[in-house]
Protein backbone atom coordinates (compact mmCIF):
# COMPACT_ATOMS: atom_id res chain seq x y z
CA UNK A 1 0.00 0.00 0.00
CA UNK A 2 1.36 3.43 -1.01
CA UNK A 3 1.83 5.90 1.78
CA UNK A 4 0.40 9.30 0.70
CA UNK A 5 2.99 11.27 2.65
CA UNK A 6 5.83 9.25 1.12
CA UNK A 7 4.37 9.78 -2.35
CA UNK A 8 4.09 13.55 -1.89
CA UNK A 9 7.68 13.81 -0.67
CA UNK A 10 8.96 12.17 -3.88
CA UNK A 11 6.39 13.87 -6.18
CA UNK A 12 5.84 17.45 -4.93
CA UNK A 13 2.93 19.43 -6.47
CA UNK A 14 4.02 22.55 -8.30
CA UNK A 15 1.53 25.38 -7.54
CA UNK A 16 1.26 27.89 -10.39
CA UNK A 17 2.65 31.27 -9.43
CA UNK A 18 0.45 34.28 -10.12
CA UNK A 19 1.65 36.33 -13.01
CA UNK A 20 3.13 39.68 -12.13
CA UNK A 21 2.73 41.07 -15.64
CA UNK A 22 -0.01 43.68 -15.96
CA UNK A 23 -3.08 42.63 -17.85
CA UNK A 24 -4.41 45.05 -20.41
CA UNK A 25 -7.80 46.58 -19.63
CA UNK A 26 -9.24 45.61 -23.00
CA UNK A 27 -8.39 41.97 -22.25
CA UNK A 28 -10.43 42.16 -19.03
CA UNK A 29 -13.33 43.75 -20.89
CA UNK A 30 -13.15 41.09 -23.60
CA UNK A 31 -13.17 38.36 -20.96
CA UNK A 32 -16.20 39.89 -19.25
CA UNK A 33 -17.98 40.23 -22.57
CA UNK A 34 -17.18 36.62 -23.47
CA UNK A 35 -18.51 35.46 -20.10
CA UNK A 36 -21.73 37.40 -20.67
CA UNK A 37 -22.09 35.98 -24.19
CA UNK A 38 -21.53 32.48 -22.84
CA UNK A 39 -24.28 33.01 -20.28
CA UNK A 40 -26.65 34.17 -23.01
CA UNK A 41 -25.78 31.16 -25.19
CA UNK A 42 -26.45 28.86 -22.25
CA UNK A 43 -29.80 30.53 -21.58
CA UNK A 44 -30.75 30.22 -25.27
CA UNK A 45 -29.81 26.53 -25.28
CA UNK A 46 -31.90 25.92 -22.16
CA UNK A 47 -34.80 27.74 -23.79
CA UNK A 48 -34.59 25.60 -26.93
CA UNK A 49 -34.41 22.44 -24.83
CA UNK A 50 -37.48 23.47 -22.84
CA UNK A 51 -39.36 24.32 -26.04
CA UNK A 52 -38.55 20.95 -27.59
CA UNK A 53 -40.18 19.03 -24.74
CA UNK A 54 -43.36 21.12 -24.79
CA UNK A 55 -46.44 20.06 -26.69
CA UNK A 56 -46.72 21.17 -30.27
CA UNK A 57 -49.82 23.25 -29.49
CA UNK A 58 -48.17 25.16 -26.64
CA UNK A 59 -47.08 28.62 -27.83
CA UNK A 60 -43.49 29.49 -27.13
CA UNK A 61 -42.63 33.16 -26.68
CA UNK A 62 -39.06 34.04 -27.53
CA UNK A 63 -37.47 37.05 -25.87
CA UNK A 64 -34.82 38.85 -27.87
CA UNK A 65 -31.94 40.36 -25.95
CA UNK A 66 -31.79 44.03 -26.89
CA UNK A 67 -29.47 45.26 -24.17
CA UNK A 68 -25.83 46.08 -24.50
CA UNK A 69 -22.89 45.72 -22.17
CA UNK A 70 -20.82 48.78 -21.46
CA UNK A 71 -17.08 49.12 -21.47
CA UNK A 72 -16.76 47.36 -18.13
CA UNK A 73 -19.22 44.62 -19.00
CA UNK A 74 -21.76 45.66 -16.36
CA UNK A 75 -23.74 48.51 -17.91
CA UNK A 76 -27.03 47.13 -19.21
CA UNK A 77 -29.07 49.65 -21.19
CA UNK A 78 -32.80 49.09 -21.49
CA UNK A 79 -36.06 51.05 -21.57
CA UNK A 80 -37.73 48.73 -19.08
CA UNK A 81 -39.18 50.43 -16.03
CA UNK A 82 -39.32 53.93 -17.51
CA UNK A 83 -42.39 55.87 -16.37
CA UNK A 84 -44.62 56.84 -19.23
CA UNK A 85 -46.08 60.31 -18.74
CA UNK A 86 -48.96 61.95 -20.56
CA UNK A 87 -49.80 65.61 -20.67
CA UNK A 88 -53.07 66.43 -19.00
CA UNK A 89 -55.17 69.48 -19.66
CA UNK A 90 -56.00 71.50 -16.59
CA UNK A 91 -59.59 71.75 -15.44
CA UNK A 92 -59.59 75.50 -16.02
CA UNK A 93 -58.50 75.07 -19.65
CA UNK A 94 -61.15 72.41 -20.22
CA UNK A 95 -63.86 74.68 -18.81
CA UNK A 96 -62.74 77.57 -21.01
CA UNK A 97 -63.00 75.57 -24.22
CA UNK A 98 -66.13 75.79 -26.38
CA UNK A 99 -66.86 72.85 -28.64
CA UNK A 100 -67.13 73.86 -32.27
CA UNK A 101 -70.10 72.75 -34.36
CA UNK A 102 -69.63 70.86 -37.58
CA UNK A 103 -69.27 72.95 -40.72
CA UNK A 104 -72.55 71.75 -42.19
CA UNK A 105 -74.41 72.97 -39.06
CA UNK A 106 -73.00 76.52 -39.10
CA UNK A 107 -76.10 77.84 -40.91
CA UNK A 108 -78.62 75.55 -39.19
CA UNK A 109 -80.96 77.85 -37.24
CA UNK A 110 -82.59 75.06 -35.27
CA UNK A 111 -79.20 73.73 -34.17
CA UNK A 112 -78.19 77.26 -33.18
CA UNK A 113 -81.36 77.73 -31.13
CA UNK A 114 -80.90 74.37 -29.43
CA UNK A 115 -77.33 75.28 -28.52
CA UNK A 116 -78.45 78.67 -27.19
CA UNK A 117 -81.10 77.17 -24.92
CA UNK A 118 -78.54 74.75 -23.50
CA UNK A 119 -76.08 77.62 -22.96
CA UNK A 120 -78.38 80.02 -21.10
CA UNK A 121 -76.70 79.39 -17.74
CA UNK A 122 -73.15 79.49 -19.12
CA UNK A 123 -73.56 82.51 -21.41
CA UNK A 124 -75.78 84.52 -19.11
CA UNK A 125 -79.19 85.95 -19.86
CA UNK A 126 -78.01 88.95 -21.89
CA UNK A 127 -77.78 89.40 -25.63
CA UNK A 128 -74.07 90.23 -25.75
CA UNK A 129 -72.98 87.08 -23.92
CA UNK A 130 -75.23 84.84 -26.00
CA UNK A 131 -74.07 86.32 -29.31
CA UNK A 132 -70.45 85.92 -28.30
CA UNK A 133 -70.89 82.29 -27.29
CA UNK A 134 -72.82 81.27 -30.40
CA UNK A 135 -70.29 82.98 -32.66
CA UNK A 136 -67.43 81.20 -30.92
CA UNK A 137 -69.24 77.91 -31.49
CA UNK A 138 -69.09 78.55 -35.23
CA UNK A 139 -72.64 79.58 -36.16
CA UNK A 140 -72.94 82.24 -38.85
CA UNK A 141 -74.42 85.70 -38.30
CA UNK A 142 -77.80 84.90 -39.85
CA UNK A 143 -78.40 81.92 -37.57
CA UNK A 144 -77.26 83.90 -34.52
CA UNK A 145 -79.57 86.86 -35.30
CA UNK A 146 -82.55 84.54 -35.79
CA UNK A 147 -81.80 82.74 -32.52
CA UNK A 148 -81.46 85.99 -30.54
CA UNK A 149 -84.82 87.19 -31.89
CA UNK A 150 -86.50 83.95 -30.78
CA UNK A 151 -84.96 84.15 -27.30
CA UNK A 152 -86.05 87.77 -26.87
CA UNK A 153 -89.57 86.95 -28.05
CA UNK A 154 -89.86 84.21 -25.43
CA UNK A 155 -88.33 86.44 -22.69
CA UNK A 156 -85.36 84.13 -22.24
CA UNK A 157 -82.94 87.05 -22.37
CA UNK A 158 -83.36 89.41 -19.41
CA UNK A 159 -80.83 92.23 -19.38
CA UNK A 160 -82.10 93.65 -16.11
CA UNK A 161 -81.82 90.37 -14.21
CA UNK A 162 -78.37 89.81 -15.67
CA UNK A 163 -77.19 93.27 -14.60
CA UNK A 164 -78.54 92.83 -11.08
CA UNK A 165 -76.74 89.51 -10.72
CA UNK A 166 -73.45 91.12 -11.75
CA UNK A 167 -73.99 93.92 -9.24
CA UNK A 168 -74.62 91.45 -6.42
CA UNK A 169 -71.51 89.50 -7.37
CA UNK A 170 -69.35 92.62 -7.36
CA UNK A 171 -70.71 93.81 -4.02
CA UNK A 172 -70.10 90.40 -2.46
CA UNK A 173 -66.40 90.69 -3.39
CA UNK A 174 -66.06 94.24 -2.00
CA UNK A 175 -66.09 96.19 -5.28
CA UNK A 176 -67.44 99.72 -5.58
CA UNK A 177 -69.80 101.33 -8.11
CA UNK A 178 -67.05 102.41 -10.51
CA UNK A 179 -65.71 98.86 -10.86
CA UNK A 180 -69.20 97.38 -11.21
CA UNK A 181 -70.06 99.93 -13.90
CA UNK A 182 -66.95 99.01 -15.89
CA UNK A 183 -67.78 95.33 -15.55
CA UNK A 184 -71.36 95.81 -16.77
CA UNK A 185 -70.09 97.78 -19.77
CA UNK A 186 -67.59 95.05 -20.61
CA UNK A 187 -70.39 92.47 -20.51
CA UNK A 188 -72.43 94.42 -23.07
CA UNK A 189 -75.19 95.58 -20.73
CA UNK A 190 -77.06 98.58 -22.20
CA UNK A 191 -76.35 101.92 -20.54
CA UNK A 192 -79.89 102.51 -19.28
CA UNK A 193 -80.05 99.05 -17.69
CA UNK A 194 -76.59 99.53 -16.18
CA UNK A 195 -77.41 102.91 -14.64
CA UNK A 196 -80.68 101.59 -13.23
CA UNK A 197 -78.98 98.59 -11.58
CA UNK A 198 -76.26 100.73 -10.00
CA UNK A 199 -78.76 103.31 -8.75
CA UNK A 200 -80.85 100.58 -7.16
CA UNK A 201 -77.77 99.16 -5.39
CA UNK A 202 -76.88 102.63 -4.07
CA UNK A 203 -80.38 103.10 -2.68
CA UNK A 204 -80.25 99.73 -0.94
CA UNK A 205 -76.87 100.50 0.65
CA UNK A 206 -75.14 97.62 -1.12
CA UNK A 207 -72.04 99.63 -2.00
CA UNK A 208 -71.73 100.90 1.57
CA UNK A 209 -71.50 97.31 2.77
CA UNK A 210 -68.97 96.61 0.02
CA UNK A 211 -66.85 99.58 1.18
CA UNK A 212 -66.95 98.34 4.77
CA UNK A 213 -65.83 94.85 3.69
CA UNK A 214 -63.07 96.37 1.56
CA UNK A 215 -61.75 98.52 4.42
CA UNK A 216 -61.77 95.68 6.93
CA UNK A 217 -59.66 93.60 4.58
CA UNK A 218 -57.30 96.52 3.97
CA UNK A 219 -56.92 97.22 7.70
CA UNK A 220 -56.01 93.60 8.34
CA UNK A 221 -53.48 93.37 5.51
CA UNK A 222 -51.71 96.69 6.21
CA UNK A 223 -51.27 96.27 9.96
CA UNK A 224 -47.71 97.22 10.91
CA UNK A 225 -47.00 99.40 7.85
CA UNK A 226 -45.79 102.98 8.17
CA UNK A 227 -48.07 105.92 7.31
CA UNK A 228 -46.75 106.64 3.81
CA UNK A 229 -46.91 103.03 2.71
CA UNK A 230 -50.42 102.69 4.11
CA UNK A 231 -51.67 105.71 2.19
CA UNK A 232 -50.14 104.46 -1.06
CA UNK A 233 -51.77 101.09 -0.50
CA UNK A 234 -55.11 102.74 0.24
CA UNK A 235 -54.98 104.91 -2.87
CA UNK A 236 -54.06 102.11 -5.28
CA UNK A 237 -56.48 99.55 -3.80
CA UNK A 238 -59.40 101.97 -3.69
CA UNK A 239 -58.85 102.92 -7.32
CA UNK A 240 -58.60 99.31 -8.52
CA UNK A 241 -61.73 98.29 -6.57
CA UNK A 242 -63.82 101.24 -7.74
CA UNK A 243 -64.21 103.04 -4.38
CA UNK A 244 -63.89 106.78 -3.83
CA UNK A 245 -61.95 108.05 -0.81
CA UNK A 246 -65.03 109.92 0.39
CA UNK A 247 -66.97 106.64 0.53
CA UNK A 248 -64.19 105.14 2.69
CA UNK A 249 -64.03 108.08 5.11
CA UNK A 250 -66.10 106.45 7.93
CA UNK A 251 -63.37 103.83 8.46
CA UNK A 252 -60.35 106.09 7.92
CA UNK A 253 -59.55 106.59 11.62
CA UNK A 254 -59.57 102.86 12.23
CA UNK A 255 -57.35 102.38 9.20
CA UNK A 256 -54.74 104.90 10.35
CA UNK A 257 -54.72 103.66 13.96
CA UNK A 258 -52.26 100.79 14.23
CA UNK A 259 -52.87 98.62 17.29
CA UNK A 260 -49.62 96.72 16.75
CA UNK A 261 -47.47 99.76 17.53
From TrEMBL:
InterPro entries: RecX_HTH_2nd, Regulatory_RecX, WH-like_DNA-bd_sf. Residues 1-25, 72-95 are annotated as: Disordered. Pfam families: RecX_HTH2. Keywords: Cytoplasm. GO terms for cellular component: cytoplasm. GO terms for biological process: regulation of DNA repair. Residues 83-95 have a biased composition (Basic residues). It is found in: Cytoplasm. Residues 158-197 form the RecX second three-helical domain. It comes from the Bacteria. Belongs to the RecX family. PANTHER family: REGULATORY PROTEIN RECX FAMILY PROTEIN (PTHR33602). This is Regulatory protein RecX. It comes from Aeriscardovia aeriphila.
